[in-house]
Amino acid sequence: MQGRTDCLKKLSFPTRVVRHIKSRKMYYVWAAIVASFATIVVYFRLPFIVFPVLLFVAFLASGGKDFPRVFFRTILRDIKGFSRFANLLITTRLHVKNKHTISDIFQETVSKHPQKAAIVFEKRTWTFKEVDEYSNRIANFFKSQGYQKGDVVALYLENCPEFICIWLGLSKLGVVTALINTNLRSDSLFHCISVASVRAVIFGTDLSGPMKEIRTKIPEVVELYSLGVKSTFMASVVHLNQKIEASSPVMSAVNHPKCFADVLLYIYTSGTTGLPKAAVVTTARYFRNAFGVICALKVRNDDVVYCPMPLYHSAAGIVGVGMCFIAGCTLSLRRKFSASNFWDDCVETKATVIQYIGELCRYLLSQPHRPSENKHSVRLAIGNGLRPQIWKEFQERFSIKEIGEFYGSTEGTASVINIDSTPGACGFMSEILPSVYPVVIFKVDPDTGELVRGPDGLAVRTKPGEVGQIVGKSLRGDPSLRFDGYLNSLETKKKIAHDVFRKGDAAFLSGDLVFRDEFGYIYFHDRTGDTFRWRGENVSTAEVESVMSKVLGLRDVVVYGVLVPGTEGRAGMAAIVDPEYKVDLAELAASLKKLLPSYACPMFLRIVHSVDLTGTFKLQKSKLRNEGFDIGVIEDQLFYYDSKEKTYLALDEVKYEQIIRGEIRIAETMDHMHRAAQQIVKQVVDNIGRIKPHLDVKEVISMGSFAEGTKICSPNEFDFMACFDFLSRNENVRIEGTEGCQPGYMVAFLNSGFDKAMANITRLLYKDICCIHHEGLRAEFVETLKEVVKAMLMKKVVTPHGIMVIKGSDYLALKLEWHKFKENYEGPEIYNGLCDRDLILATSYSLDIGVDIMPAVSVEDLTPLSDIHGFPSHVFGMTGNVKFHLVCKVSGQSPHAPYLHISHATTEVFLVRHLHPIHKKCYRVLKYLLTHNTYFNRPIKDISLSSYVFKTAVLFHEYEKLCSGTPDIVTCCIEIIRYVRVKLREGVFPPFLMRTTNVWGQCYKIPVSDAWRPSGLDREICSFDWCFVLWFQLWRQFLGKALTIFQKIKLKLQTEEPETSDSSTLLNDASLTSLNSMSQTRDLVEYVPNRYDSFLAEFEVLREDAFVITTKYSKDAKDTQTFSFISRCPSEKVWELVLPKFPEYLSRIESVCSREMSIPKEEFEEVVEVG
């Protein structure tokens, strides 16, 4: 410590002056303004009235352009609030000075109204004098038993006047009363008694059962007293009724020191997140909370307050009883809340003020209409927890003029109150003089929940509309604004933050998230522990609960976040009370979509018979949250939201496993991107059809990895197939194979009945009047696409997560741009066609999206296709109604021949989607390693290794029964990699469907350009040859590294070789059982070298040496050299000269990529899910 102080230097005088001025900058600025205005008034001899006018104008100008409007809108409210707050402060200071206690304040009320009704309970009226006398009897008895200041007595009693009198009488001795929740049992009950170190427990005879359960746990030194007419049948229990009757009603003298900061009560938290905590309530806190409500809402001594709330809670025990003790009101008390008798009681007792809390208002609204609900005299409702969604309905239906919604906690110093019945608000902060009230809303980190700090180390205040934590000052010198915390000092420390308002201060952290509007009105958002993040957004459980409850007819709803493997944050889950299973899930899903942002809609539903409530009508969440959506633990009915069906579907074991393995994706932004792109494509092709009817598209089909469910990153492209209507009709077009045609190609002929009037229209489309030509079809589609997109530029599709904007076209592709919203949008434009107007919305990022559109002819009749050499007849019957299509693709045999290529894209999508979950995961993992920026691969724009290789290998692995046993990720990945290595050495790798072609030819992509020629390489080496050698070496290196890492993981896990299992275990869909017979088909087409395989012809020499085959690079490729003649050179020379240059080649790729080329081993193990 000495070393640290030695290095500190004393600040120079100028530095101290500068820091002093900076810390009081605002004061000096206003001092200068006042001096300037005074000088102007004196110098120009202006009337004195001008001086305050100038100051007022300067004040209005200091807050910005909107400040004058805010000022005049809120000035009367603020004046009213400040005057009432000043009354609270002055009265509190007087009591502090005079060292009053609650019993002293109550004594003043008794002296004013001794015979006035203090408490009305079950047809009996207790006057203030009777309450005082009963409390005196309590004090005298316990004084005779040796109780003195500092002792603690637990009170475990139902609502009754005796409850109030007991703690009031004990307070006259300085004894602290711990108010125990009557709903507690067993361990929770014992915890509350033991944590307070009580000397005695007073309990009602109707609660003797729970006391018996824990009697053996309670130390013998703790005295037990019962109150009531029933017998307890418990030994060593003193019956208190007789003792009270025998005690004097006149208070005997006490000589203990009294102070306004004395501890009065222990009130326990509701325990929604764990065991209840005992909050320390001093006389000062009790008075401030009660008198603050009285002042703010102008409660009168002639008011009758109806209180059905439990007295062990601060709402009734402090605010309700406080209005009686301090303001002299009559308290109409009920033993337990009854929604059906609520308004009848109000009419009978002539209540003018009612108290509510939690879900009570919703329960009242759910009751059938009755005459008494509008015959009452209630003018004011006081409480907290009235949800904004039902505020107006509650106020209008029950004809209540004022609602005094407040925010506060038993132990906290942060409290606000709504004094003008603004709907939804729980209080306000002055925007004119925000520093007057000791409560501020500070920003919090959405991930950690910690306060956000500025450069000066202090907490950063929120702006209007921003969600933050409400924080109150903790002032040591003011007992009413000092945070006294809990009996547990560790829990107290968690609620205190330092250096919040200023350096060295202490502040109370409420743990509640709120926000304020531009006028300073404060609205409750959620508890920090209840709020969860989903898809990068904060979800308020309170808001979702309120909306769902209203949609469901005011049913009980509990919302919480649950973890879903493979996703960030927590998905929303709602427990709905529906014992009769009447909820319409489809209607619920549709309603939530309209009322909530997509990220806030629950992904899971749980239908329950009831939910646990606290005594203050708060919903218990901890148990529900811990159980999540685990179908093995939960016996209730579970549902999950299906983003395709747009409704909730039953969650069974199969669906649960698919969600756990990531096969069923919980709705994401990607879905909105895809849907927006699909809507744009549909609009584009519709416009093409309007311009040229023969190009009318009847169906747009999603293709590629998104449709397969194997997309592993945020997409930058989507693939769609546009199927023509006119050309897909059997009466217009017939499909035939042609002798000598390259495998996989067909000819489409126009039928003889073709309308001659279409001849002129289709001259470009067809080579002649009888045969469709791929070149003409493609050219006309591209030309029309360009024309249509040009007219649609900058139009957009609006989604809840962002907008997709049309930016242009490029050949058969659309250029789109995705803009992600920072906050979800709920406007009418969502998925409502193309939007023209600008949306001024904040976006978090933008992304260029490419959308490939493949024009195609769908084939209804497969008979002509089945006769073609190489057609995959072996998949008939296993793919259901999946169609084949003919697409515009140049034939390698004769580029100008009128051939259309057979596409198996829809079949591949079907097969991949129905892979075994483990095999599908294997494909995703291998694809991740191959296409992402890892040390396995060196990705660059013009050089890549295609993941189609692994798609083919995985299809063979499952459907040809190459899996050695029960699938697991590591073992199957090893087997798949080995299979690909064999095919690489052989140079022949037929696709799973079209067995007469070669995968390697489709997956060869490397630029034929000297830009990548290794330095010092002999110029006579053919570019095709050395590029091929490098491509081959890249594949060999990747497969070797991948195999090594999987073998290391397998060794680490000490995985034993799986036993051979029945092939039926590889199938996860009953509809695919026909696959079992596939391998037994005798007419499977196998690959044989043929004249159409250009790879053999071009690289025969290299094939002999490298055992591999590849293809000539496309002449249409950009930035490449075109070779009319491929020189032949000795293969030995190629390998001899190129391979030593391979490290240099990799180094150059890395320098161009300029990216990190490694992936942590831990991350990889997480990818393959072997932990």
Average pLDDT level: 77
What is the name of the CATH superfamily of the domain at 540-692? ANL, C-terminal domain
Largest sheet properties? 10 strands, mixed
Low-confidence stretches: 1-9, 756-764, 933-941, 1054-1085, 1095-1130, 1152-1171
Number of strands: 40
Subcellular location: Cell membrane; Peroxisome membrane
Domain AMP-dependent synthetase/ligase: 106-471
Organism: Stylophora pistillata
Pfam family, one: AMP-binding
Q: Would you kindly provide a written description of the structure presented here, covering whatever features stand out?
A:
- The chain is elongated.
- The strands form seven sheets. Strands 29, 30, 31, 32, 35, 36, 37, 38, 39 and 40 form a ten-stranded mixed beta sheet that branches.
- It is α/β, with parallel strands linked by helices.
- The longest helix is centred in the N-terminal third of the chain and has 32 residues, at 67-98.
- Strand 14 and strand 15 form a beta hairpin.
- Among the domains are: 18-63; 540-692, ANL, C-terminal domain (GMP Synthetase, Chain A, domain 3, 2-Layer Sandwich), CATH 3.30.300; 756-849, no CATH class; 857-902, no CATH class.
- It holds the Pfam family AMP-binding.
- Its EC number is 6.2.1.3.
- Residues 543-618 form the AMP-binding enzyme C-terminal domain.
- This is Very long-chain fatty acid transport protein.
- Belongs to the ATP-dependent AMP-binding enzyme family.
